[in-house]
Design goal:
This protein has about 210 residues and is mainly beta. It is built from four helices and 18 strands. The strands form five sheets. Strands 3, 9, 13, 14, 15, 16, 17 and 18 form an eight-stranded mixed sheet that branches. A four-stranded antiparallel sheet has the order 2-1-8-7, with no helix packed on it. Strands 4-5 form a two-stranded antiparallel sheet. The longest helix is centred in the N-terminal third of the chain and has 7 residues. This is ubiquitinyl hydrolase 1.
Amino acid sequence: MRIFTKKLPHPDMPAEEKAQLLQRSEYQERMVESTFLYLTLDLPTAPLYKDEKEQLIIPQVPLFSILAKFNGSTEKEYKTYKENFLKRFQLTRLPPYLIFCIKRFTKNNFFVEKNPTIVNFPITNVDLREYLSEEVQAAHTHTTYDLIANIVHDGKPSEGSYRIHVLHHGTGKWYELQDLQVTDILPQMITLSEAYIQIWKRREEDETNQQGA
């Protein structure tokens, strides 16, 4: 991927001083190319609403909304102890297998918080062509992915447990694994879980959909 980084002046700095700093070379946008093992998808802040029965309503977000981080134009601010940066990302090559890590956990000095937002995603036909830079799109014949594994975290950050949804390629059926217990699961139930890590497989040709979803 390409990573574009731009250093920002301190937000409390007077406007005139900011303008002067922004003219310096260290505040100009820089680009580096980097390999990646997985893509980290950031969840929006999750306010919990209550309905008329005082039951909590869990917020939801489409997968393509959080994938927009890698479209080459979406900017996000990153803060360090001393400096702030604006970054944007653009994919330049798609691997045969793609791993998404949905960032549910954030740490501060006192405890770990978990974001319970549900990510709405199709389990087949996820096309990532639009996230590639224009000059490399022509070199990618296949840009569509199907989900083959979904790791779920249930419960509180410190006390939770994990479940795994796995596609059996030979039959096209999905199974849920937790410890030594293996059960069938309907594909539409997978999308209701608090997905944490996902593995997607690229279609190398026009494959027939065997997953029934």
